Amino acid sequence: MLFRSVLPNNVVSVTTIGTPHKGMELFDFSGEQPLAVQVTLSLVFNLIGYAIDLTSGQPLPQDALAAQEQLSTAGSAAYNAMYPSAGLPANCSAPTGEADVRNGQTQLLYSWMGNAAGTNVLDPSDLVFIPVGALIESRGGGSHDGFVSVCSARFGKELGIYPWNHFDEVSQILRSEEHTSELQSH
Asked: Which H/E stretch holds residue 100?
């Protein structure tokens, strides 16, 4: 998102997929825990990150404590204040803007997201997304993909809300043929 602010003439559209624009209840929760619990959770989050690296083939450095700070609702609010966008709704039921104009360049804004934590009994990621989804719901986050609330993922023109978890959205693990055909139709 920063790129479109720094080099607006190089960006025609932005599409986000299950992106936590307004932060994540999971990181609010982990940030409220005693330091020893935060460190333990950061180790777990880093291990999940390394597991994702193994499935994607793109090793990236992991820093769960930094992610916790940046992806909390407070961290996301601070980022959104620095880089405002018409695509971000004022609240969960407010309309979103479908374009930003930066330096005279119109940038079209789109998003799509999932709203199901458990999607495939053979998918080991469901074992993470189902309890995290319960945490999201317990904190008032509403509908979610097991990791990001639909409210937080809303940005620009909404292309769809699908019965997918966070990994299904990006075809991370055990995607179904139905999932593939829905992606190809867009």
From this structure: strand 99-102
User: For 111-143, how does the pLDDT look when each residue is reduced to its tens digit (9 = 90+)?
Assistant: 999 999 999 888 888 998 999 999 999 999 999
Rg (alpha carbons) of the chain, rounded to whole number: 17
Q: Tell me how far apart the alpha carbons of residues 165 and 176 are, in angstroms, rounded to a whole number.
A: 12
Tell me: the pLDDT tens digits for 13-34? 999 999 999 999 999 998 999 9
- What's the pTM value of the predicted model, to 2 decimals? 0.82
Q: Which one, of 108, 96, 112, 87, lies nearest residue 182 by Cα? A: 112
Task: Check if the beta carbon of residue 12 is closer than 8 Å to that of residue 108.
Answer: yes
Write the DSSP string, 60-87. Answer: ----HHHHHHHHSHHHHHHHHHHS--TT
| Integer Cα distance of 147 and 117 in angstroms | 8
In order of 88, 135, 140, the CA distances from 92 in angstroms are: 10, 18, 12
